Amino acid sequence: GDIDRPIFPRSACKVLQALPLVASGAADALQLTDEELALACASHGGEAAHARTAAAMLAKAGVDLTALECGAHWPYNEQATRTLAHDGQAPSALHNNCSGKHAGFVCLGCQLHGGRADLRGFLSGYVKPEHPVMREVSAALQAATGFDLSTSARGTDGCSIPTHAVPLRHLALAFARVATGQGLSADHARAARRLRQAVARTPFYVGGTGRFDTRVMERLGERVFCKVGAEGVHCAALPELGLGVAVKMDDGNNARACEVVLAALLQRLLPLDDADAGFVHGLSDLTLRNWNGLEVGRLAAAPTLR
């Protein structure tokens, strides 16, 4: 593929968007926990623990869920949706898969506001490109990728923030920088390390039950930070190797070839013992069954990719 063609990384770059949350001092000032920092990097399933954690972040900033500008949708996790429906409840912005990222933006805004009057007024419109919060977030993305965002396309993401088109080469570079801190400012390097460690300690909060990213990081810990993005994007930081990985699948499907390819790359790049290699191999060689339980096909990485 063409690794210099700009693509929209969408949610795959959430850890880059969360750098200012830590670098600004907001995470320390509000005493954010590992779970809350992991949620700031998450595309979560909207499970009860995810929603509670997002609400806790907002409470620390002195606001409630009405400050969120991500919109509401039913949880991605089927059981969480069934539970809400059974209890006669409607989903709120806390169940949005991006609520943790947005709660992080609100916490950053709280820090930028500096305790002046009318915090809610300052936070209003934080999703807009010209708002101080988004200027900080976009500056962090540009610094990490080394790509001039003013030269590329900009759209509006599903959660309403700006999304910038960035070449895969620059995304991989950014994740190598997240892995090592090299090439980042001292504050951003410290932030990247803290976010990676928070996710490694609480990987449930970056995805959720059964999700690829959560499963991989539960198994491999700090050896891998990986994050999916909409439309077939997956990025990873491999600290012990000093490498970053960025994948874009043109079919736009996150849960088929995209995960198979990333798993195959992890198996190829990381030195794994037999048990871990078997686990990762299982993610890159999958049997497909229909609703009647019959085997109908496979998803498997080519030997050359491994």
Q: State the shape.
A: globular
Structural class: alpha+beta
- Spatial order of strands in the largest sheet: 5-6-7
State the order of secondary-structure elements, H for helix, E for strand: EHHHHHHHHHEEEHHHEEEHHEE
Distance between the termini: 17 Å
Helix content: 40-55%
The description of the largest β-sheet is: 3 strands, antiparallel
Quaternary = single chain
Let me know the average pLDDT: 96
- C-alpha-based Rg, rounded: 19 Å
Number of helices: 14
Beta strand count? 9
Q: What is the percentage of strand-forming residues?
A: 5-15%
Enumerate the spans where pLDDT stays under 50 for 5 or more consecutive residues: none
Overview of this protein structure:
The chain is of the alpha+beta class and 306 residues long. 46% of the residues lie in helices and 12% in strands. The protein has a three-stranded antiparallel beta sheet with strand order 5-6-7. Strand 8 (285-289) and strand 9 (295-300) form a beta hairpin. Helix 13 packs antiparallel against helix 14.
